């Protein structure tokens, strides 16, 4: 019997512009993450994936505001908690969040150990400095990170090392879910691999139970996460297992995304890359009907007029007017 | 490829920064041969010296040692007039579209300066048509854009506008320094396809500077693998990627996640 | 640029500063046209308190202090502006050369700038003023200008050397544009707002410097400036005579002008500084 560690339903969050307009960057998102599973979120820039990650923490800073919906962690709705409760009980303990470019946000004047001491002062005030130190050393050693790092200043570490350190610090309280927003996109391939390995170690050693991984690098998600969810214009357009999403996408948008993958493998050369004309819609004025319709090569009149509900087929969800048979036939024809 | 005309040839290119104890060799005795219409990728991680090498080829940095021949003649860049002549044939696209634009110039001015650069005397209408043609080549609408400032455009649009600029100038050599590393996958395919189309139309030589092995494999005829200032392996793209000889190249390729083969996290 | 100007108008701080400054400027330019008397003419007894005839009373020579003040503000602002122009121009040229050319030129110019920064400029100002015999207000302004450029130079150098490595400058270079053209079109627009701010600050500090050296009796001859009015009040012991009107209005004027300039500067800073702007 698996339990749901994270359950999001009808989540809407918006940015308030200077002209007091509401721009819904996350517009009615529902998803469930089971304990022990990992979930990838993909999509173009501006599709709302980073905003979704930020929204999952329950903290909202202007210009980002909470609209409606619920976020449940182990059945507890964190949107019903006060800011103080969120800070002391949820953040870092239940959910840890690593924002984009987190590694550059470390205060350069403090040694790494100080960041851990600060967290412990907040959450485990009974521990002495010595105990915190021992604990940090043990954790770093388990994760194959040199304990020497603890005595270093952030700018003495390489980019990859800094990112791994940030992840190790953020997960020191063993949060149930780790949300990582583009943790590897500024890194070299070698450092990227080390960061991925660290996250796998965290999962294997059960320091974290689940992972939400946000990136636009699809081959990476294929190797890291069980499921992949694709976002477009603030909505989830498809979710399935990594295998299904990469090799057998249903939604035309997912299809295009997967067609744009470039990897150094046989057959890549001479292969025609998929390109999507146009740009994602401006979220200030979302088009009626399917949000992808204006860029979709299969779009018909009904797509532009009627709103699309999520369809569920064999445990997969996708948001398109057409049934799987029609879509697959189109894709097959296109190939030949 | 080697049957084509040799365009740029470098021998023993070296670049040393700093003096005395702080001396670092960014580029260390690099040889290269770029031919007309060839697409080359120089692949390396950050700090490998690939950007320094690109700047030397562009003529923006002076090499500390070695020689470069252009069209069979030693390259001379001593006087401004020499440089101007060389730069007539060489253009570049950079990684960060946001820093590639002068924020104080409207799109129209950027494209107009391309016309002026070629020394063409055109009527207003001819100018308009030429700019419109360039924009439509990169799927942008000139009518919607001409009056805009760069910061009103998206990163992908800006990068495409940079390609429109190249389309108007049709240089003999284009150096593309990580042109797609700051745009997402979909814009990346569009940009790469446009660059390939440019090559097919103008027989342009394109030199990609990239850390992305997959991209290098997809676009290029020839790949140079660079590590710590040196070229460790060079050859046709197929050979380098599918049958790498050097340990470093193998390492680099195996570090990239693929979709048909397992990813060994070691 | 037009855009920035429109935003500038919406900044209350800038508008307050600019308002005060323009009103003062208008007053001191227009009043002498209405009251065409010579400000140095002795028309009353010494140290007369303010009255309906003499709005700010008279000084030790029995001259109309209000009229003197009008001419004094005029001179002070002129000295400040000329000093500001000189300081900004020298700072800009040295900063641009140092930042754009780099290498040995940069090392040399940076050293010179640093030397000027560590030598207290006020002392140089006094020494030069003492050693020059004929001091007009223009000479004083130029002396102030050439002792206060280093901070501008330093900031311009820092910004230029980071702009020099931006890709649009590289693109301009490989487009074959000449160095002066690149500096004017690719570098200057980015630092223009900063340079304007520096100019406003230099003007304010120029006014203060002029007042300081004039009060020491080392200011320009044959003219009236705010510092000179204060110098006369001091020399002829106006405070002892209880003639507050002989120096308080002049001191307040200095405060008001520099305040208005600083307000303009803060207003601009809030708008042009991208960190605060976002």
Automatic annotation (TrEMBL), chain A:
Q: Which CDD domains match?
A: ABC_NikE_OppD_transporters
Lipoprotein as UniProt keyword: no
- Keywords of this protein's UniProt record, alphabetized? ATP-binding, Nucleotide-binding, Transport
Q: Name one Pfam family in it.
A: oligo_HPY
ABC transporter domain location is: 6-258
**PANTHER family given for it?**
MALTOSE ABC TRANSPORTER, ATP-BINDING PROTEIN (PTHR43067:SF3), OLIGOPEPTIDE/DIPEPTIDE ABC TRANSPORTER, ATPASE SUBUNIT (PTHR43067)
Per the record, the similarity remark reads:
Belongs to the ABC transporter superfamily.
According to UniProt, the name of this protein is Peptide/nickel transport system ATP-binding protein
TrEMBL record, chain B:
Protein name, per record: Peptide/nickel transport system ATP-binding protein
Q: Does the keyword Transport apply?
A: no
Is the keyword Nucleotide-binding assigned to this protein? yes
Task: Output the superkingdom of the source species.
Answer: Bacteria
Residue ranges of the ABC transporter domain?
8-253
Q: What terms describe the molecular function in GO for this protein?
A: ATP binding; ATP hydrolysis activity
Q: Tell me the Gene3D superfamilies matching this sequence.
A: P-loop containing nucleotide triphosphate hydrolases (3.40.50.300)
Please give the organism. Answer: Paenibacillus rhizosphaerae
Q: Which UniProt keywords apply?
A: ATP-binding, Nucleotide-binding
Automatic annotation (TrEMBL), chain C:
State where it is primarily located.
membrane
Q: Write out the similarity annotation.
A: Belongs to the binding-protein-dependent transport system permease family.
Q: Which domain of life is it from?
A: Bacteria
- Single GO MF descriptor: dipeptide transmembrane transporter activity
Q: Does the keyword Transmembrane apply?
A: yes
The compartments listed are: Cell membrane
GO cellular component term of the entry, any: plasma membrane
Q: Note the InterPro entries from the entry.
A: BP-dependent_transpt_permease (IPR050366), MetI-like (IPR000515), MetI-like_sf (IPR035906)
What's the source species' lineage? Bacteria, Bacillati, Bacillota, Bacilli, Bacillales
Task: Supply the alphabetized keyword list.
Answer: Cell membrane, Membrane, Transmembrane, Transmembrane helix, Transport
Q: Which organism is it from?
A: Paenibacillus rhizosphaerae
Q: What is this protein called?
A: Peptide/nickel transport system permease protein
* Stretches assigned to the ABC transmembrane type-1 domain: 73-265
Segments spanning the bilayer are 14-34, 79-102, 108-130, 182-201, 213-236, 242-262
Q: How does it sit in the membrane?
A: Multi-pass membrane protein
